[in-house]
Amino acid sequence: MSITQEAEKYVTNLLTEQLSDSHSYHSLDHTMRVRDACLEIGKGMELKEEDLEVLELAALFHDTGFIAQYDGHEEASHKIALDFLTAQEYKHKKLDKVLGCIAITKMGVEPKNQLGEIMKDADLTNLGRADYLETLADLRHEWEVILGQKHSDKDWYQLNRSFLKSHSYYTAYAEKHFGAQVKENQKVLKKLAQAEKGNMKKSTKPNKAAKPAPTSITGSRSAQMMFKTASRNHLDLSSLADNKANIMISVNAAIVTFALPVAWSYISTYEYLLFPSITLLITCLASMVFATLATRPIKMIGFTDEEKIKSGQSNLFFFGNFFNMSFDEYHLGMQQTIEQEDRLEGAIMRDLYFLGRSLGRKYNQLRICYNIFMIGVILTVIVFMIAFNVLGA
C-alpha cells in the first residue's frame, strides 16, 4: 500500500470517528474534494509524481486539526501530519513540503511557491463550483453551531459576495476552470442579497393567522444532518459486517481445506477421530453457508416503471432500481422525483429504510453464523473427549 493510500485510510478513520457532525462544511467530503482538486490542478499543470504526492498528502491532512480545535486548527493539522508521516519514515525533504502546504491554507497567508499556490487554489475551488450555495449553507450551519455566529440572510449573502469579489485564483489552471463560475456565483449572491433587502422593506407586521411551515427534511438542516449521519453509520456497519463474514469464510475454508484432511488421514488408525471430524465438518459448512448469505447481494431487476416513480414507491438513488433503464428513462424519472419535495423526501427515507433492512438481514445471518461456529467447536471438543474415552481407551 502506498503512502497516500495509507494516509487516506488513516484520515478517513480519524475524521469519521473523531470529527463531530457539527462540522458540516469542514467534513471528510470537503477533505476529499480538496484532495481531488489538488490532483486535478497538479496534473493539469503537468507536475511530477513526487509533487503530486506532496499535494495529496497535504490535502488529506490539512483539516484534520478540526478534531482538536476550530481556531488555529492548522497547527493541530501540522502536528497530526508530522506524527503520522514521521512514523511512516517519510523523507524529511518531502515532509517539509507537505507541512508547508498545510500551513499555506491558513486565511491571510500568501503562497511563496507553485505547490503553495495549487494548495491554496484547491482549498477554495468550492467558490467556483455549481454547488457553491450548498457548501455555503453547510458553512453557515457550522459557524452557527460551533462558533455561535448568526447572520441574517441579507448580511450572509453580502458577506460572502464581498469575499468572492476580492478572491482570485493564483494558478492559471484554476482561473480557467473555476474563475467563470466564481463570477456566476457572485451574481447569484447579489440577487439573493437584493431580494432579502426588498423583503426587509415590506411590512413586518406579524400575520396572526399564519401557520408555521411544516417540518420537512429539505427545510431542516438538523434533519438533513441526521439522515446523512445515519446513512454513513449504516454503510460503515455494513462494511464491518462484510469483513466479519469474510473472516468466517476464510477461517472455515482453511479448516476444511487443511485441518480436516490431516485429521481424516489418521481415522484408519484412530477411529475415535471420525465423529469429531464429522461434527467439525458440519459446523464449518453451516458457518460458511450463513457467512455467504450475509454477503450475498440482494436480487435486483434494475428497472422502475413510471407509475411507481410518480407514486413515490421507488428510489432512483439506488442503482439496483435503474441499471437496466435507458438514460432517457432514468433522467425523466429522476426529474419527476426531485421536482416535488414530498417525492424527494420519500426517496431519502426509503433509501435509509431499505439500507437498514439490508443491514438487519446481514447481522441476523452473521449472528447465526457465529453461533453455529461457537456451538459447533464446543460440540466438536465434547464429541472428541467422549469418543476418545470410549473408543480410544
List the helices and strands and how they pair.
Blueprint: H1 3-18, H2 28-44, H3 49-61, H4 73-87, H5 92-103, H6 114-123, H7 132-147, H8 153-166, H9 172-201, H10 221-265, H11 274-295, H12 306-310, H13 327-338, H14 341-392
Helix pairs in contact: 1-3, 2-3, 2-6, 3-5, 3-6, 4-5, 5-6, 8-9, 10-11, 10-14, 11-14
* Overall pLDDT: 85
Supply the CATH superfamily name of the largest domain: Hypothetical protein af1432
- Number of discrete domains: 2
Q: Tell me the major beta sheet.
A: none
CATH level 1 name of the largest domain? Mainly Alpha
The rough form would be described as: globular
- What amount of the residues lies in strands? under 5%
**Second CATH tier, the architecture of the largest domain:** Orthogonal Bundle
Spans of 5+ residues with little confidence (pLDDT < 50)?
208-214
What report would you give on this structure?
This protein is mainly α and 393 residues long. It has 14 helices and no strands. The chain has helices spanning 3-18, 28-44, 49-61, 73-87, 92-103, 114-123, 132-147, 153-166, 172-201, 221-265, 274-295, 306-310, 327-338, 341-392. Mean pLDDT is 85; it is low at 208-214.
Report a brief summary of the structure.
The chain is mainly α and 393 residues long. Helices cover 71% and strands 0% of the residues.
